């Protein structure tokens, strides 16, 4: 009887493991936002082992000659499932893997595309950013998403970098890449599919998910007017609902930054220290954003240090 129970337990464990592996390798759900342009919408959540780091919007564009991938997700399993989604739709070669910036939720899936012959593309500052922070990300995210997921990650810098603007030809389909001054990070890159006028904005655009300042709030505010002039009709933000009308999708983000800047200038003028400003700056918009309590204090600290120099 003992051997029978042990056998049943082993079989159940194998069955569960197989189911989990099957789920991990099943094609990532994507929706066709425009002809030949597919997007996976990540959760509005913090990265975790449970969600496999699947919190960023990622996508692909299919041309006559091949495919471009825009970001690869927050873990290798997410990247592998994105690859499976591509292969479910086309057998054309993957020509480019474009990373919109350095953050783990956008680049930790890169290893799934390593060795396929694709050219990795990014902002001219991206190699430096990955070299400076890559090891820190690997160490920090072991505590967040676990050893198993982090052990699969490869930090892969781009071999093709964008200093200002660049055009990529997918065959009958052109992508226009633009490098931006420091804003969300110091290596933000946008991708415009000219055929459908769809903008992959990376984390220069957040919708519903509170924006996160890891570069320069002043730079972000300065970038917004030029960003709004990009000739798109719809946008894929780095986080939040996709396919929204452009440039209207910027309205909430602009209001948050302008309100935060106003609060901080007032706080600094009154001589308040940063820890006092953290208790109230930006709070009037708390109900407009998810993850507000996770990131607003961080934004206040980052922005305070910039505006403090104006006094």
Quick take:
The protein contains nine helices and 13 strands. It is α/β, with parallel strands linked by helices and 311 residues long. The N and C termini lie far apart (80 Å).
Lateral strand order in the biggest sheet: 1-2-3-4-5-6-7
Shape: globular
Provide the succession of SSEs: HEEEEHEHEHHEEEEEHEEHHH
Task: Identify low-pLDDT runs.
Answer: 1-24
Q: Please describe the biggest sheet, giving its number of strands, its sense, and whether it closes into a barrel.
A: 7 strands, mixed
DSSP summary, beta strand count: 13
Helix count equals 9
Strand composition percent? 15-25%
Radius of gyration: 21 Å
N- and C-termini, Cα separation:
80 Å
Helix content: 25-40%
Mean pLDDT: 93
- By secondary-structure content and strand pairing, the structural class works out as alpha/beta
């Amino acid at each position: 009887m003992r051997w029978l129970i042990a056998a049943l337990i082993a079989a159940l464990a194998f069955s569960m493991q197989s189911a989990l592996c099957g789920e991990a390798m099943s094609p990532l759900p994507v929706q066709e936002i425009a002809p030949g342009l597919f997007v996976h919408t990540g959760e509005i959540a913090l990265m975790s082992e449970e969600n496999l780091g699947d919190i960023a919007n990622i996508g692909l564009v299919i041309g006559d000659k091949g495919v471009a991938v825009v970001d690869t997700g927050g873990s290798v399993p997410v990247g592998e499932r994105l690859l499976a989604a591509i292969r479910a739709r086309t057998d054309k070669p993957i020509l480019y893997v474009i990373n919109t910036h350095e953050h783990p939720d956008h680049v930790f899936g890169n290893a799934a595309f390593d060795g396929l012959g694709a050219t990795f593309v990014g902002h001219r500052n991206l190699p430096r950013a990955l070299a400076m922070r890559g090891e820190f990300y690997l160490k920090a995210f072991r505590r967040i998403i676990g050893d198993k997921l982090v052990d699969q990650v490869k930090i892969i810098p781009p071999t093709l970098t964008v200093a200002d603007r660049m055009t990529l030809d997918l065959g009958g389909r052109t992508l226009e890449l633009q490098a931006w001054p420091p804003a969300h990070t110091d290596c933000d890159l946008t991708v415009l599919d000219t055929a459908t006028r769809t903008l992959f904005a990376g984390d220069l655009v957040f919708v519903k998910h509170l924006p996160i300042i890891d570069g320069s709030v002043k730079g972000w505010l300065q970038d917004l007017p030029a960003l709004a002039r990009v000739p798109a009709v719809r946008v894929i933000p780095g986080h939040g609902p996709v396919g929204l009308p452009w440039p209207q999708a910027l309205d909430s983000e602009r209001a948050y930054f302008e309100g935060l800047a106003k609060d901080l200038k007032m706080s600094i003028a009154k001589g308040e220290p940063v820890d006092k400003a953290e208790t109230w700056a930006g709070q009037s918009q708390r109900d407009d954003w998810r993850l507000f309590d996770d990131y607003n204090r961080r934004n206040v600290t980052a922005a305070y240090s910039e505006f403090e120099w104006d006094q």
